[in-house]
Amino acid sequence: MKPLLYLLAGIVLSGAIISCNNPSKNSGLNTVGKIALHDDGVNIAYTDTGKNDTTLLFVHGWCINKSYWSSQATYFGKKYRVVAIDLPGFGQSGKNRNQWNTMAFSRDVDSVIKQLDLKKVILVGHSMSGDVVLQAAVDNPKQVIGLVVVDIFKNVGKAQVHTAQAKKENDAAIDSLKHQFKQITFAYFNEALFYKTTTAAVKKRVLNDVAHVDTAIAAACMEDNGDFNEIAKLQAAKTKLYLINSDVKLTDTTHLAANKIPFKLLYIHATGHFPMIEKPEEFNILLDRAIADIKMQKK
Fold first, then answer.
1. Quick one: which of 11, 87, 248, 268 has the fewest CB in 10 Å?
2. What is the pLDDT of residue 38?
3. What's the Rg (C-alpha) of the chain?
4. Residue 215 half-sphere exposure, CB side, CA atoms within 13 Å?
């Protein structure tokens, strides 16, 4: 089990009867009509923008939602199909289930790919959903042509301490989170996820979403996900990994290289944990570069 502080150091997450809300009211982009998506009876809210045989499928991080990808939907929807989802338990998606872990969320992504009949998919996962899209890439090898993670996997493969004491401390931290959710998460976001360049507007938006999340579900996301071996999963995915990470904390790629996992690291300068809304123009340029590389390799 990974200690709670390790999870928090690399975490942040977001399905409902779907009325596809346009990600930008003034974008003028094509969005599809109403289609009901679900996974095992749980509704999944999503937006569907643009038309193309290549789809960018965006999955948000802990305590947030699909609206964090609205700038990407506007920008990339002009030349690709762009789908952004609310993970069950977050945003406008359903809450009628008991599992809130990586494997459950990855099955939600599987369901979206299947029910929208997506053929060429580039998965983009922010923070905690880095593991979610990684598992989805493993499970959908025929459909997934690219894997992009955002501000996560900064020391992937680094050995974690699995001791009785570490488990005890982790359990205690989760219990505290359940009883003092807002106090603990606000302190964590302010201290670890925001940077000095993060604007007051961005902080207000993120903390407002944190304040209105279902705290029981959010805390449950921190529970033990089992032995999710990211290096083994990356090897099983058999696809190049693209990382768009803030350079405030440098990314250690030692274990990626040592395990011969193909990757490309793209740094975005001086942002907090939410580069897609902190510096959307720069983020879009980097993602565009990753997509171009993915498409070139698939020729």
1. 248
2. 86
3. 18
4. 15
Torsion over CA of 214, 90, 45 and 99, rounded to 10 degrees?
-90
Contact between 123 and 148 (Cβ < 8 Å):
yes
Neighbours of 162 (CB within 10 A): 11
Residue 5: both structure tokens together = 């502080």
- H or E stretch at 119: none
DSSP reduced 3-state for 103: helix
Residue 99 contacts by C-beta under 8 Å, 6 or more apart in sequence? Answer: none
91: left (phi over 0), alpha (psi -120 to 50) or beta: left
Domain residue limits, the chain: 4-297
**How far, in Å, CA of 218 to CA of 188, rounded?**
14
C-alpha span between 152 and 275 (Å, rounded): 12
3-state secondary structure 253-273: CHHHHHCCCCEEEEEECCCCC
Q: Are 59 and 129 in contact (CB under 8 A)?
A: yes
Closest CA to 173 of 226, 215, 219, 127: 219
pTM of the model: 0.89
CATH architecture, domain defined by 4-297: 3-Layer(aba) Sandwich (3.40)
Instruction: Give the E-state strand segments of the chain in sequence order.
Output: 38-39, 42-43, 46-49, 54-59, 81-85, 120-126, 144-150, 241-246, 263-268
Q: What is the pLDDT of residue 96?
A: 94
Angle at 54 between CA 50 and CA 60, to 5 degrees: 75
- Predicted confidence at residue 25, as pLDDT, reads 38
